[in-house]
Specification:
FAD/NAD(P)-binding domain, 11 helices, alpha/beta, single chain, 371 residues, six-stranded mixed β-sheet
Length: 371
C-alpha cells in the first residue's frame, strides 16, 4: 500500500481522493460506518471550492445553503453584523462525508469501515509504516496520514502532550427547522460558551454550541443548561423556544482541546483536527481540514515519486502547515478569550459594532484564500 489514511472525516476523505487521483494505492480506515452525524458547525468557507472541483467532488449536487453574512451577539443580545468576504456554504457532515466516501470507494480507495487502529509503528530500516488494527489485521504502507479528529486512543499511544491534560470543553449539536435567514451564520455568546446557527441542506439548520463541563455540571443536564444559561441571551432563547428540534437527543462530544498540537508524530503526517483545532467561534475548521488534505497529498506525492526523502517530506509539510494554519490558530485562541465572559463579551461586541474594519480584519486572519 502506498498510503494508509486513519480517519474518514473531511481531511482523510479529501486526501484519499487526491492521492487516488494521482494514481496511488490508498486505504482509509474509519472506526464508524457511513453515514453518521458529527458534532460540527457545518459551515465551510468557499475557499475550498476550487480544490473540491479539481477532485471532481463539487458539493453542489448536495444542495448546500449559500451563506454570505455574519451576525455576532453578546450574552445580552447586542449584535454586530458583517459581510463574509468569500462567503461559504452549509451542508451536514452526515451528507457531505457520505458523499465523499462514496466517491472515494467508487474510484478505488480501499475503505475499511467499523475498523479501529490501535497502533502505528515505523521501521527505520525499511523506511515504512505498519498500521495495527483492533481485529489483528495489519497494513503496511510507505506513508501514513493521521486524520482521525480531535481526540483518539492513538494520541495516548503517541503520548501527545495535549492528551495528558483534561480539556474543560464540550460540544453539543442539533439539527432543527427555524424561521431564520438562510444566507446568515449567527454566533451567539452566553456565559462560558457560544453557539452557532446556520442553514444546511433541505431547509434545515445546524445549531451547535461549545461550553464547559463546569457549566454542565452546575446545571445537571443539557436541557437545564440550555434553560438556565443559553436562554439568557434573547436570540438563543428564541431558538430554544421556537425551533423544531429534529433530534430526540443532541449529539455531544467531550474533551475538546484547543491546545497547540504537532502536525507530525512518529513519521506520520497529521491533518485536520488531529493537527490542531481552531475555535468554533472562528468557524473555519472544516475548510482547514480540506486545505490540510491538499497540502498533505501534495507533499506525499513528492515523497512517493522520489522527489523528497522522508526528512525533507516532514520538513516541507511542517513548514507548509505552520505557514497556512499556525497564525489562524493563534488568532482563534485569542478571539476565544474575548468571548464567553459576559462583561467582556458585551464590551467587545459593543466596540466592534462601530469598527467594521476590525471585524473584517479578524475574519481575514482566521480564513484563508481560495486554493
Amino acid at each position: 500500500m502506498d498510503v494508509v489514511i486513519i480517519g474518514g472525516g473531511l481531511g482523510g476523505l479529501c486526501a484519499a481522493l487526491d492521492l487516488r487521483q494521482r494514481g496511488y494505492a490508498v486505504a482509509l480506515v474509519e472506526r464508524r460506518q457511513f453515514p453518521f452525524h458529527r458534532v460540527c458547525g457545518e459551515y465551510i468557507s468557499n475557499e475550498v471550492l476550487p480544490y473540491l472541483r479539481r477532485l471532481h467532488a463539487d458539493p453542489a449536487p448536495l444542495g448546500p445553503a449559500h451563506i454570505g453574512r455574519l451576525l455576532v451577539s453578546s450574552p445580552a443580545g447586542r449584535t454586530l453584523t458583517a459581510p463574509l468576504d468569500l462567503g461559504g456554504f452549509g451542508i451536514s457532515r452526515y451528507r457531505l462525508d457520505d458523499y465523499l466516501y462514496r466517491l472515494a470507494e467508487s474510484r478505488g480507495v480501499q475503505v475499511l469501515q467499523k475498523t479501529t487502529v490501535t497502533d502505528v509503528t515505523f521501521d527505520t530500516g525499511r523506511d515504512a509504516h505498519e498500521v495495527v488494527l483492533a481485529d489483528g489485521g495489519r497494513l503496511a504502507a510507505r506513508a501514513v496520514l493521521g486524520a482521525y479528529g480531535k481526540r483518539s486512543t492513538l494520541d495516548r499511544q503517541l503520548q501527545r502532550p495535549f492528551f495528558q491534560q483534561r480539556s474543560p470543553y464540550l460540544g453539543v449539536k442539533y439539527h432543527l427547522r427555524y424561521d431564520f435567514p438562510p444566507d446568515l451564520i449567527a454566533l451567539h455568546n452566553f456565559a462560558d460558551g457560544y453557539a452557532g446557527i446556520s442553514a444546511i441542506e433541505d431547509g434545515k439548520y445546524c445549531f451547535c454550541y461549545l461550553t464547559t463541563r463546569r457549566n454542565l455540571k452546575a446545571h445537571g443536564t443539557v436541557a437545564e443548561l440550555e434553560r438556565q444559561v443559553l436562554a439568557r441571551n434573547p436570540l438563543l432563547r428564541a431558538i430554544l423556544h421556537e425551533a423544531e428540534f429534529l433530534y430526540d437527543q443532541p449529539e455531544v462530544i467531550n474533551e475538546i482541546s484547543f491546545a497547540p498540537k504537532t502536525c507530525l508524530e512518529n513519521h506520520m503526517l497529521l491533518c485536520g483536527d488531529a493537527a490542531g483545532l481552531i475555535t468554533p467561534l472562528c468557524g473555519n475548521g472544516m475548510a482547514m481540514a480540506i486545505h490540510g488534505a491538499q497540502l498533505a497529498a501534495h507533499h506525499l506525492d513528492q515523497f512517493l515519486r522520489g522527489q523528497l526523502a522522508r526528512p525533507a517530506l516532514e520538513a516541507a509539510y511542517r513548514h507548509s502547515w505552520q505557514r497556512h494554519f499556525g497564525p489562524r490558530l493563534r488568532v482563534g485562541r485569542a478571539v476565544q478569550r474575548l468571548f464567553g465572559q459576559p462583561v467582556l463579551s458585551e464590551a467587545v461586541v459593543g466596540g466592534l459594532r462601530h469598527w467594521p474594519a476590525a471585524v473584517q480584519a479578524l475574519m481575514r486572519r482566521t480564513h484563508g484564500q481560495e486554493f
